[in-house]
Structures are given as structure tokens and as C-alpha cells.
Amino acid sequence: MNFETPDDFIARIEKDQQVNTFFLTQNLGAEVHWFFHEALKALKSELYLSACSSFVIGIEASIRFTQAQLESNEIVNKLDPIKTLSNRLLKVAKENGLPIEKLAFPSETDFNGKLLSTKPDLVNVEIVRLRHHLCHGNILEFRNSELGDSDILFTPECVRDLAYDLYQLSKNWVSALAEFRSQKFGISPYILKMQVVKSQSDLPPALTNTKPESD
After folding, report:
1. pTM, whole model, 2 decimals?
2. What is the pLDDT of residues 165-188, one digit of tens each?
3. Given a cut of 70, is residue 212 above it in pLDDT?
């Protein structure tokens, strides 16, 4: 039987803390980071619809709030109701230097082409398209039709892969946005410190031979 060593235990706790506090430590502001943090909690709880919605809203909030800060030297107390997530908003944000390219999905090789498209041939980039569908209750494209048209079904697990894709996208986006905000506003990401024991002698007796919890 393999037991977790004290060093392995400490490393696991530190890694878990880094994951759990990541979105809270990027200086996005409480008006933004809680969307991402709660999305992560939902993902860990297998609440995939909630996770998808919160990740998308977090991305939209982070752009709108940062744009508002760029446009005014005053404390932001109101967001323009017209400036919601769209190709147009992303193009303006890109002109302001925001790392919008980080919002492209890995398979979205035509991201810039979509962004530059205009009516009547406008094609939304994927994050905008998903926002328009998910945040307005349209999940039809995610239904499972493997059993045929007469047995189409939907459960939250149908968007599980999307939830994990949005998590990875959100992490990449937030990391890049935090760097931009640091350069623009002089506010840098910070690390929440956690006191940890460094040797077995510092551990309580109950943890010196702790068996890891099964996943």
C-alpha cells in the first residue's frame, strides 16, 4: 500500500491552492473575478451548464470592465449597456491593446477573419457565438442525437467538454489580461500566501502517514 509522503502532501495542497485561488489573484477586481471563481467551483461540482455560463460571463465582464477603466479616470460605477460582448467590442478592445487573440479557441484558425467580417457577411467569433446562444438559453446544438432523431436528448454532461474548453480558454485569457492590466494600470497579479510545513517534524502525527484520498 502506497502512502502519501509529507512532501507529496505539501505539494498537493500547494497545487490545489494555486488552482483554487488563480482567478482571485489576477487583480481583475471583485466585479469580475467572482464569475470565473464560481465557474471553476461549478466545474469541480460537475455543474457544467453553470460553469459554461459563468466562464462566458466572466470573459464578457473582464472586457467590459477593463474597457470602461481605459475610457475613464473615474471609479467605474456603471457599464455602458450597449457595449456587450460582440465582434465590434472585441475589435475596439484589440485597438486598445487588449490580448483579444487569447479568446480564440484552439481550432479557431479563422478568428481574425471572423473578427474583421462585416454585415451582410458578418460571422461571429466562437466566444461571441457561444455567448449569444448560452446566455439566451439556446443549447440545441449540444443535444445528443446518437440514438436517432426520435431519441434526441440533452443532459448537462452534453456540455462537459465545452466547460473544460472554456476553463482553459479563461485561464489563458485571464493570464494575458492580467499582464496587460499590470502594464496599463500598474496593478500586478499577486499570490495568496499559505503557511505550509516544510518537514515531517512540523506535521501533526495524524498526517505523517496520510493515505491520499481517492479521486
Report:
1. 0.84
2. 999 999 999 999 999 999 998 876
3. no
In three-state form (DSSP H/G/I as H, E/B as E, the rest C), the secondary structure along the chain is: CCCECHHHHHHHHHHHHHHHHHHHHCCCCHHHHHHHHHHHHHHHCCCHHHHHHHHHHHHHHHHHHHHHHHHCCCCCCCCCCCCCCCHHHHHHHHHCCCCHHHHCCCCCCCHHHHHHCCCCCCCCCHHHHHHHHHCCCCCHHHCECCCCHHHCECCHHHHHHHHHHHHHHHHHHHHHHHHHHHHHHCCCCCCCCCCCCCCHHHCCHHHCCECCCCC
Q: Express each pLDDT in 115-166 by its tens digit.
A: 999 999 999 999 999 999 999 999 999 999 988 888 999 999 999 999 999 9
CB 102 within 8 A of CB 112: no
Residue 153: beta bridge partners? 144
